[in-house]
Structures are given as structure tokens and as C-alpha cells.
Amino acid sequence: SYKDDSILKVIKIYKVPENRKPVIDSILIDTVIFKSSYNFVVNAGNSITLTNFAHDPEGGNSGGTITYTWYGNTSGFLSSTTGDSISYTAAFGIYTDTVFAFAYDSLGFKTSNSIALTCNNYPKIDAFVIGIIKVPVSTNDSVFNYSTLSQDTISLKVLASDIDTAAGDFI
Fold this sequence. Notes:
With 171 residues, the protein is an all-beta fold. The protein has no helices and 12 strands. The strands form 3 sheets. It has a 5-stranded antiparallel sheet with strand order 2-1-4-7-6, with no helix packed on it. A 4-stranded mixed sheet has the order 3-9-8-5, with no helix packed on it. β8 and β9 form a beta hairpin.
């Protein structure tokens, strides 16, 4: 007689839906939409709003919710590290900051993009030239009075320098 001691094993195979990472469609910086190259100039002390627009290529089949995070190796200040929209406030000085925008689907797949922010200072007003009179500007000056006849024409110049350059280029 023949005795079969083999064990029958059943293997179940499940087809798992394909999941791809989210896609960042664009970054909105204030009112300007950037679709590929994310470079922006911001003046010292100013704030800008960064908004990340992304979608799930599976159309929500993986759960549908996109979550957003932000990271910056920055001299400036990020208002938050989560959410689709944040604020960035530039510090004073000359520098380039990089802010990274991340988008995650509900299964943890992620994508990212970086935004280069060139930060610079406002020009410094050094003096006013009214007619032939040069009036230097100091931190204590707020008002300068100049009298003329009502029919007179005067020339007014503003002398300013770029404090971001070592030599102080005049504008």
C-alpha cells in the first residue's frame, strides 16, 4: 500500500493596487504660481505666503488625503511646518534660503520640491538734494522743511546706496 504524508499548502495571492508618490503641481508664492522653477526674491523683513498644490496620481484610491510638511534650512522664519500654506519672513541680510515642500499620500509615499529664496536688504536713503542743497539723512531726521514761491520749480534727487554691497553702490 502507498501512504502519502505530504501536506497540501494553499497560498493566496492578492493583487495590491499600485501606489505612486504624490505629484506637486505647483507652488504659489504670494500671487505668483511657479510650476517648475521655484526661485523668488524677498526683501528683508517682508513676509510671503507659500502654498503647495499636490495631487495623488491614483485619484484618491490610496485614501485620498494629501498632507503637507515644510522644512527650511533658513535664516528666515517659517510660521509652521505643516499645512498646505505657510508664511516665510525674511531676516535682514544678504543670503539665499532653501525651503523644502513635502506632500504625502495616506500610505506614506512622499514627494518634495525646493524653493530658492534670495533675500536682500532695501536700499539705504543717504541724502536728498533739493535744488542745490544736499540734506543728509540720519536716523533722527524725519521732516525737512523747504520753502519756495508757489510758481517756482525745484529739482529733487534722492541719493541712496545698496547696503548689500561692500562698496555701497549709489543708485
